[in-house]
């Protein structure tokens, strides 16, 4: 089984509706470790050794966060800046992450229609995540399609619960290497794979 590390970042978890539920869906999943970055480092002083060890102990690294200003909350950028050291994560001798998978689990206030050229946010969500995709590539990791929960400004409890179940399905498929049965590299979002994932095997 693959080991999954969830690098979770929510700067105001007490006000969260979506991630508070999503994170509960992964806490008791087999082979899944949740690392709450704001809880571990409320002052943003990241323990680089601890983080590098955690990454090395896992095969798949998922960054879970609400989209803030078309990007991630600040601690994730801080994490990249400090943890992904030259000749560790990248560079001619930087092979620590080679062969691992990396992906994003995000929520955004805007609905799918707002992330169209004609919509308020103009660009599709995957384009706002390009720094993650290219960082994965630079570090010789495989970038997974992101899972996106849209429209959180008007989301219902039922849709949040369904999203939590979908997230659990994704984690189970990743942990059990069930993705290879699908053409997942061709998907732009993990959301597209859910109908097939639910039929290629259960938790
Ligand atoms: C500071 C801030 C910036 C935000 N920026 C965006 C944004 O760029 N695009 C968007 O769709 N939603 C944006 N939102 C909405 C959040 O993404 C949304 O509230 C969050 O995904 C809901 O998850 P939660 O209930 O776990 O907090 C922003 C919210 C805050 C507080």
From TrEMBL:
<dbReference type="InterPro" id="IPR003680">
    <property type="entry name" value="Flavodoxin_fold"/>
</dbReference>
<dbReference type="Pfam" id="PF02525">
    <property type="entry name" value="Flavodoxin_2"/>
</dbReference>
<dbReference type="InterPro" id="IPR029039">
    <property type="entry name" value="Flavoprotein-like_sf"/>
</dbReference>
<feature type="domain" description="Flavodoxin-like fold">
    <location>
        <begin position="3"/>
        <end position="169"/>
    </location>
</feature>
<keyword id="KW-0560">Oxidoreductase</keyword>
<dbReference type="InterPro" id="IPR046980">
    <property type="entry name" value="KefG/KefF"/>
</dbReference>
<protein>
    <submittedName>
        <fullName>NAD(P)H-dependent oxidoreductase</fullName>
    </submittedName>
</protein>
């Amino acid at each position: 089984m693959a080991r999954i590390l969830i690098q979770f970042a929510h700067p105001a978890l007490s006000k969260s509706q979506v991630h508070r539920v999503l994170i509960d869906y992964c806490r008791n999943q087999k082979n899944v470790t949740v690392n709450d970055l704001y809880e571990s480092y409320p002052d943003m002083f990241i323990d680089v050794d601890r983080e590098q060890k955690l990454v090395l102990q896992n095969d798949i690294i998922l960054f879970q966060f609400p989209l803030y200003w078309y990007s991630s909350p600040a601690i994730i950028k801080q994490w990249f800046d400090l943890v992904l050291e030259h000749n560790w994560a990248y560079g001619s001798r930087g092979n620590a992450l080679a062969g691992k998978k990396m992906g994003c689990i995000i929520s955004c206030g805007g609905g799918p229609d707002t992330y169209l050229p004609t919509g308020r946010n103009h660009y599709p969500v995957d384009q706002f995540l390009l720094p993650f995709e290219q960082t994965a590539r630079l570090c010789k990791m495989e970038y997974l399609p992101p899972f996106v929960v849209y429209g959180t400004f008007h989301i219902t409890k039922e849709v949040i619960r369904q999203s939590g179940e979908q997230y659990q399905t994704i984690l189970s498929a990743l942990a059990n290497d069930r993705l290879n049965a699908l053409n997942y590299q061709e998907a732009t979002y993990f959301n597209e794979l859910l109908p097939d994932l639910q039929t290629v095997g259960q938790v």
